Amino acid sequence: MPPPSEPEAANKAARGGDSDAPRQEIVKAAAELFMDLGYRATSIDAIAERMGSTKGRVYHWYRSKAEIYFDVQRSAMRRLTELVEPIAREGGPPQQRIERMARAHVDCLLHDLPMQKVSVQGLETHVITSDSVRHAKAMREIVGLRDAYEALFCEVIDEGIRAGVFVDLPPRLLSKPFFGALNWVTIWYRPRRLQTEDDLQMLGEMLTEFAVRGILKERN
Q: Mind listing the UniProt keywords for this protein, alphabetically (predicted)?
């Protein structure tokens, strides 16, 4: 079954009667394959097989693998933002808020590893260079989502700097090693068969403490 035309795909996305569930099922299956195989080795056929479906069903919702990949990115950033933004916007001491934000961030990474690992890995070179003009709008959108998410942390870090709690460096510069400490878990972490929720909670606490300690100002 050939993929629908671009207007048809846009119309399907805009139709109020279409449920988001089928798209999320495709995105979830694709994220698992992108994580295990990488972008290049993942095919529409493989995504359909992972779902136990036909590729015609995938093409009903998506015109290409790249479109699915971008939706994985969007879904990952949406989940993180929904968890973290309410914490960032509420009042309270900046150190407490950044600790809770970091914990929400790393917990999401641990519990939603395929989606978040693909997101952390970023826009792969193949996607960017294969058809840069065609995908430029989607890439700008994803970069914008990432920048907005990072800004939530930078705003709270800036409050902490002005309060004398965090290291006196530009917030965006300080956020880089902070996110690095948290996001590195997507590189080395693999779920274990006998792993418990308590194990994940302990890991989340350790990573959060380590990341926050790295931006705290030393006390005399």
A: DNA-binding
Range 150-171 average pLDDT: 97
Confidence check: pLDDT of 195 > 90: no
Tell me the one-letter amino acid at 178: F
CATH of 1-63, one of 1.10.20.140, 1.10.10.60, 2.60.40.1220, 3.40.190.10: 1.10.10.60
Query: Which amino acid, residue 104?
Result: A
Q: Where in the chain is the domain with CATH 1.10.357.10?
A: 65-220
Fold of the domain spanning 65-220: Tetracycline Repressor; domain 2 (1.10.357)
Which residues, other chains included, contact 199 with Cβ-Cβ below 8 Å and sequence gap of 6+? Answer: 192
* In the chain, ranges of CATH 1.10.10.60 domains: 1-63
* Per-residue pLDDT tens digits for 80-98: 999 999 999 998 999 999 9
Neighbouring residues of 80: CB distance < 8 A, sequence distance ≥ 6: 105, 108, 116, 149
Are the beta carbons of 178 and 105 closer than 8 angstroms?
A: no
Q: Has residue 60 got a pLDDT over 70?
A: yes
pTM of this prediction? Answer: 0.84
Residue pair 33/42 in contact (Cβ under 8 Å)? The answer is yes
Asked whether 3 and 63 are in contact (CB, 8 A), the reply is yes
